[in-house]
Amino acid sequence: MRNFLYTAKPAAAIRRVFTLSNRLQRWPHHQPSLALINSSLRRTIVFVSDAKAEVHKSRLPRNLEIKSELVWLIDEMGEVVGPLEPSRILKNFDFQNKSFVTVSENYGEDGQYPLCKIMDRAVVRRSELAALRNKQKKKQIQTKTIELTWVVEPHDLETKLRRMKEFLLKGSRVKILVKPKKKGKVIAVPDAENILQRIKDSVNEVGGKEMKPLEGQVLGLMEVTYESKKP
């Protein structure tokens, strides 16, 4: 059975549970098990908890976590003032709507005190979650490797270029590895350069771009990595 209760947002998950409750009163024969409902909510809670833990692990100290006796503060005009005592800044502080965040842990010529700023709590949260999503997205990007030789046959080259374009369109990175053939047929430098141009043209056709500069030499071992412009 499809788990239609699962969602990354706890508020949405709870709303679906209450919606489901109303539906069950009208259609009692369509009843998923209570275990399914509990399992969906548990996964939602775990997802949110893991996201919070990941953000907390990677961010700089804030609010009462700031232990420095003095800090530099970016005021509302964008000017740096201080150094000031954090206890004075946090006296009668609106923790519900504001966050006292560390911008840099070692600010100034001597780097003795951190640089801090008072920010809207909702803005900070959105920024952190967006950064976390981007980080997770980058982890999910796969790198595909396509190997060929300088004496590749035309139909084989077409096949490999088609596969490369398919990978790029799906958001994968593609590493092209061109190797010399140990024995047999050899080609001239202009023909080898034509192969490289064919590869570049195919990448441009699908809106790809060079991720790592080309390494190696023509007719030798050569490697280049491409990625989608919008992964």
Automatic annotation (TrEMBL):
GO terms for cellular component: mitochondrion
GO MF terms held by the record: ribosome binding; translation initiation factor activity
Keyword Glycosyltransferase: no
Positions of the Translation initiation factor 3 C-terminal domain: 141-213
GO biological process, one term: mitochondrial translational initiation
Pfam (any one): IF3_C
UniProt keyword annotations, A-Z: Initiation factor, Protein biosynthesis
Family label: Belongs to the IF-3 family.
PANTHER family: TRANSLATION INITIATION FACTOR IF-3 (PTHR10938), TRANSLATION INITIATION FACTOR IF-3, MITOCHONDRIAL (PTHR10938:SF0)
Protein known as: Translation initiation factor 3 C-terminal domain-containing protein
